[in-house]
Amino acid sequence: MRVFLQVWRQKNGQSKGRFERYEASEVSPDMSLLEMLDVVNEGLVQKNEAPIAFDHDCREGICGMCGLVINGVPHGSEGGATTCQLHMRKFQDGDEIWIEPFRAKAFPVLRDCVVDRTALDRIIQAGGFISVRTGSAPDANQILVPKENADLAMDAAACIGCGACVAACPNASAMLFTAAKISHLGLLPQGQPERHSRALAMVKQMDAEGFGACTNHEECEAVCPKEVSIDFIARMNRDFAKAAATFRPPKARGGGD
Amino acid sequence: MTLNSNCPTGPIEKRWEKRRFEMKLVNPANKRKYNVIVVGSGLAGASAAASLGELGYNVQCFCYQDSPRRAHSIAAQGGINAAKNYTNDGDSIFRLFYDTVKGGDFRARESNVYRLAEVSVDIIDQCAAQGVPFAREYGGLLANRSFGGAQVSRTFYARGQTGQQLLIGAYQALARQIAAGTVKMSCRSEMLELIVVDGVARGIVTRDMVTGKIEAHVADAVALCTGGYGNVFYLSTNAKGCNAMALWRAHKKGAYLANPCFTQIHPTCIPVKGEYQSKLTLMSESLRNDGRVWVPKDGKDSGKRVSDIPEEARDYYLERRYPAFGNLVPRDIASRAAKQVCDDGRGVGPGGLGVYLDFADSIQRLGKKMIEERYGNLFDMYHHITDENPYEVPMRIYPAVHYTMGGLWVDYDLMSTVPGLFVGGEANFSDHGANRLGASALMQGLADGYFVLPYTIGHYLGQRAAGGVKLDHPEVKAAKKSVEERVRKLLDIGGSRSPDSFHRELGLLCWEHCGMARKKDGLEIALQRIPELREEFWKDLRVVGSGEELNQELERAGRVADALEFAELMVRDALHREESCGGHFREESQTPEGEAMRDDERFCYVAAWAHQGVDKEPVLHKEPLSFEYVKLTQRSYK
Q1: SS3 A80
Q2: Could you give the CA distance from residue B191 to residue B210 in angstroms, rounded to a whole number?
Q3: What kind and span of H or E run contains B64?
Q4: Are residues A46 and A101 in the same domain?
Q5: Min Cα separation B242/chain A (Å)
Q6: Is A184 in Cβ contact with B387 (below 8 Å)?
Q7: Phi and psi of B395, rounded to 5°?
Q8: Residue A81's domain is classified under what CATH number?
């Protein structure tokens, strides 16, 4: 089959970008979209032109590194899958395919379709963890976790941090990402001691990074490759509200005798 | 030269305790004066960096991805082994140790493997406390399953995403240390050189993959946790970015490489579809629990529809050849058997490189619902990639490169032959011998990172003063300059072929002659062809763009350049080891029934190679292996 691509090209973060049109001929329906781009890039190299830069790594839908907006939809309209799991058989011969980077103020473009998503890492650094030193853990079966809580925590923990939720949201909100982590840890007994301080710190960082707020468009859930539910946002809001009303930072009391 | 593994002596169950007591300690107030570099942020790297940061050392961690959470440990599906004996089925530290030594076909060091089994129980405790959402039973306790043909249920898991969840646990521990200021994280940063001063590892040179800036970093110790070299084969189940550059840079600076011919070919992967294929996808080994493997008895039937091949015309070759283990024979045996039937011209699917994994009997016996519960996500994944519905037609599978047991040689402390250079996870050679068991890679990565490196690096640092080498040191400047020159050289060739085109050619060559079955004349062809290909590479490579920008072609070019040297050593090692063991099958060394035959008289050692220069023959050093606790036996699965 043969398709036409409109691809976002941008030399670096400082320059202005634009769409460029390319023809991809001899496309096999069994190719993944990224393999089709590999072939287009090989052709560009032959013409001494800069290949299209895009992020990808595992190419099996789990690392969260790939992320293209395809025909206006982050990860394409396959649903429940990442960009690397999208195959050309989902397109028609002669289709015009629009390919661009995840767009959000907090995700600056580095080149072409490669964006900087380190803002998500900084949200985790603000409190998305359980403070447990290596070697200090009790026997694993000392901590009982009801199966339904463990399963629900796993549903939230399935987030791969790709940022599609941000790209899909009209407000470029990172609330589904942040809520998934707050819920994963908040649903487990191990996560209780820091539950409130965690919610406050992560939400504060999320705002500081320039992500917008949630206004219930539910676009995030629709594009999430791991189908993380927006119910977790409600859970986060509850934890945040409770924390904001009750949490007081501990006073420093140094010394000892 | 005989290599000294530096293992403690005495009863095996006391060795690690003994070593820990012998260790020098660093005064808590002095720890922050020591700089430690950790390269890689997978299970071994992230857990080592986080644990060293917690202890108070000043840690710098580097990864090539955009976030430390993306390292390829994330793709592991099955689970993680630990000798907890929670299921009361007779497991113990000794049994896990025994299974690992035997499964590795007696080419691993007993002391290391015992320690691995010993700390496996601490790993589960640590991960559970971090909030890793392991599968649970209704009573709230952890669930276990049997995996990879093990006779006890010692595998812990988190749906089909165990690797991801364990890595996120380590990533979160790392994030906590980054916030605390003990770890400085550099993403999109690739290590291009190891800095060695007076024979001791003192830092690395990196390239910022966004700006192209080449920078030196000095430290008191360096830990490489950079994964395996499976991508030398181009097509593998590894992530696209996985590469052997860090290993190879260290090797060229004096670190010996051990057993590079020990590569694991996983039997159940989705077959190659076309020349454009960029990677291979693994289907979990657990599928062999309920799927039956077969090909037509007659090659003439290979092209027929499955429904047109009657039962009596099918050859369930694993069940026929291995009645005791059937479809559950270990990975290396299942892979070779698939190759043999395809070599016979009985393979199915495009190119005849595939065998059927058929669930029809199981669906009939257990019902579709039960199969869906067990493997639903895997069936969906298969359907997604191939556009074939495995509930209706059998899956087609074929073996693919999956894991590399070889790696940099390390002693008991996981230190390489370059003092101050430590190696953890898949990057070292230490624990899996010639074949790795299922659910043991995650265990080893975390054992090294959480529970071994933080001690042994501390012991190393405790014997020397902090600092001493600064960025203006002549060796540091020379290392940086050599990297700048190499980048320049790659850009200046101005030939006609892309890095990927060379990589594909190298991969095919390695797969054909150094893949599932190896023989002398084939290996010799590869040994002749690889240097020729390398020469073509340095004459005809084309890298579009400059070094001072985000340039993915340049990144690939550097990795392929090193893969072209690495592959030669892998082939040379395979040629020298004239025995079959584990994942290394030499056609000359097999029993009359066609099974792998070890040669303990001649090859019961670790082969550690010392670099002498490109286009020069490396020097082989041997570390003899002795087995005090597990008796040397020939594996049999008949």
Answers
A1: coil
A2: 14
A3: none
A4: yes
A5: 8
A6: no
A7: -65, 150
A8: 3.10.20.30
For B42, the 3-state DSSP assignment is coil
The one-letter amino acid code at A230 reads I
Q: How much of chain B, in percent, has pLDDT values that exceed 70?
A: 100
B541-558 residue pLDDT tens: 999 999 999 999 999 999
Q: Could you tell me the pLDDT band of residue B1, with boundaries at 50, 70 and 90?
A: low
Structural domain contains residue A251: no
Residue B448 burial (C-beta neighbours within 10 Å; 0-12, 13-18, 19+): buried
Rounded to the nearest angstrom, the minimum Cα separation between B284 and chain A is 13
Tokens describing residue A254: 């140094």
**How many Å lie between the alpha carbon of B44 and the closest alpha carbon of chain A?**
13
Beta bridge partners of A70: A73, A99
Dmax (CA) for chain A in angstroms is 79
| pLDDT for position A256 | 57
Contact yes or no for A62 and B164 at CB 8 A: yes
Beta-carbon separation of A131 and B75 below 8 A:
no
Question: Which among B48, B53, B66 has a CA at the least distance from the CA of B183?
Answer: B53
Q: Is residue A176 part of a domain?
A: yes
What are the C-alpha distances in Å from B321 to residues A255, B328, B334, B593, B636?
72, 12, 11, 9, 12
**Is A253 a member of any domain?**
no
* Per-residue tokens: B527: 């040994």
* Domains along chain B with CATH numbers: 266-401 (3.90.700.10), 479-624 (1.20.58.100)
Tokens 């691993």 map to which residue? Answer: B108
DSSP B170: H
Give residues with Cβ within 8 angstroms of B197, minimum separation 6.
B469, B473, B475, B476
Alpha helices in B497-548 (DSSP H): 499-514, 520-540
Distances (CA, A) of A242 to A156, A200, A237, A247, B571: 20, 10, 8, 8, 63
What local confidence, expressed as pLDDT, does residue B264 receive? 96
Please give the structure tokens belonging to residue B131.
């909030």
- Comparing B370 with B239, which gets the higher pLDDT? B239
pLDDT at residue A257, rounded to an integer: 58
Nearest chain A residue (CA) to B74: A63
pTM over the 0.90 mark? yes
- At B195 the pLDDT is 98
3-state secondary structure (DSSP) of residue B125: helix
- Domain residue limits at A191: 117-131+139-246
Measured N-to-C along each axis, helices A147-157 and A175-186 cross at an angle, to the nearest 10 degrees, of 150
Alpha-carbon span B233 to B227, nearest angstrom: 15
Do A189 and A227 belong together in one domain?
A: yes
Contacts of B306 (CB under 8 A, 6+ apart): B356, B393, B394
Instruction: Judge whether B331 counts as a catalytic residue.
Output: yes
Domains in chain A, number: 2
Q: Is residue B351 pLDDT above 90, yes or no? A: no
What's the CA gap between B41 and B29, in Å, rounded? 27
How many of the other CB atoms lie within 10 Å of CB of B52? 29
Q: Is the dihedral of CA B338, B341, B344, B347 positive or negative?
A: negative
* Assigned token pair, B153: 């249920």
Interatomic CA distance for residues B409 and B403, integer angstroms: 17
What is the domain-level CATH number for residue A178? 1.10.1060.10
Pairing of strands B292-296, B257-258: unpaired
* B61 neighbourhood in chain A, CB within 8 Å: none
Low-confidence ranges of chain A (pLDDT < 50): none
Nearest CA in chain A to B50: A134
B102-125 pLDDT per residue, tens: 999 999 999 999 999 999 999 999
The backbone torsions φ and ψ at residue B358, rounded to the nearest 5 degrees and listed phi first, read -105, 130
Q: What phi-psi label fits residue B393: left (phi over 0), alpha (psi between -120 and 50 degrees) or beta?
A: beta
Tell me how many residue pairs between chain A and chain B have CB atoms under 8 A apart.
Answer: 215
Q: Which residue in B80, B81, B61 sits closest to B71, CA to CA?
A: B61
Please answer whether residues B118 and B93 qualify as being in contact, where contact means their C-beta atoms are separated by less than 8 angstroms.
yes
Whether A204 maps to a domain, the answer reads yes
